[in-house]
Amino acid sequence: MKAGRLYQYNQPLKIEEVADPVITHPNDVIVKIGGAGVCHTDLHLIQGMWHHILGTELPHIIGHENAGWVHQVGSGVTNFKVGDPVIVHPVMSCGYCLSCRRGEDMHCEDLKFPGLSVDGGYAQYLKTSDRALIPLPEGVRPEEVAPYADAGITAYRAVRKAAPLARPGTKALMIGMGGLGHIGIQVMRELGNADIITLDIDKGRLDMSLDLGAAHAVVANDQAISQVKSLTNEKGADIIIDFVGTDRTHADSMQMLRKGGHYFVVGYGGTVNVPSINIINNEFNIIGSLVGNYSDLYELMQLNARGKVKLHTSKYSLDEANDVLRKLEEGKINGRAVLVP
């Protein structure tokens, strides 16, 4: 099969022919990829950021936002058949450890993460497990929904945590209206009751956020903090969801957060640096949020099926993977990019 493999950190992928994945466990499933989302985490993997966490062995096929059709099943798979259209939860979990039994697949003690720790979906075929698959509704094309498998459920999980706090009269600030943010705002519109303020450097993305349900949009510049303060009666936002995660957004968020407020950190790369006296005196709640679990993906797909949450995507061939990754790094992808092998 054709695949995009990383041979060396901070170097382009090689698009080449490799061996097809094979069934080795009764619950294995081979998925024919119909769409593979291109994510900032792919960039971070290429930069070596995940190596010390996952010990990724090179060469490696990246790609963790995948959807397609069941191509082959192991002897123990009874709930899927060849040809079924599916979206793939990003992790392969054991189902037996305490985290799995609590429904938190992404904390599985024997976790395998296609695209990060084992070969992923920048390829024609992907090996995963039957536990990771969710059937697609009739008429839904895999390339239309693949980014929900990570970007979607990452945004969904953070908003689901925040939604009970988003009561009428509260203000929710959402930072970054790119691939995650444009999903997150739609989920907040459906699950929460706060007035939504969006913050981004790009006016086009901000205009889109207004169309998707934001009450106010603020350009990320030197006046942004004062504008957010003005929109929140000088008290600050009750909830901030940061889909960017730089030193700048972390520092600014601490100035835009209301006393007793909740700051959800979703994007990463920076460092949250807050004096403990400030956390205590203001009763700030700083909460990390990882990729969503299987139930989060199921629920998000239900919202998608009802037309409540929609993806803004652009499609490319697998041969264009390096060009797309470069565009993503340069901030030239609006919404989500999807590779179609």
Automatic annotation (TrEMBL):
Xref: CDD domains: arabinose_DH_like
**Alphabetized SUPFAM superfamilies for the sequence:** GroES-like, NAD(P)-binding Rossmann-fold domains
Cite the Pfam families for this sequence. Answer: ADH_N, ADH_zinc_N
- Domain (Enoyl reductase (ER)) spans 4-339
Per the record, the domain of life is Bacteria
The chemistry this enzyme catalyses reads:
a secondary alcohol + NAD(+) = a ketone + NADH + H(+); a primary alcohol + NAD(+) = an aldehyde + NADH + H(+)
Q: Which UniProt keywords apply?
A: Metal-binding, Oxidoreductase, Zinc
Which E.C. number(s) belong to this protein? Answer: 1.1.1.1
Which cofactors are required for activity? Zn(2+)
* Family affiliation: Belongs to the zinc-containing alcohol dehydrogenase family.
Name of the protein in its database record: Alcohol dehydrogenase
The record lists the organism as Ferviditalea candida
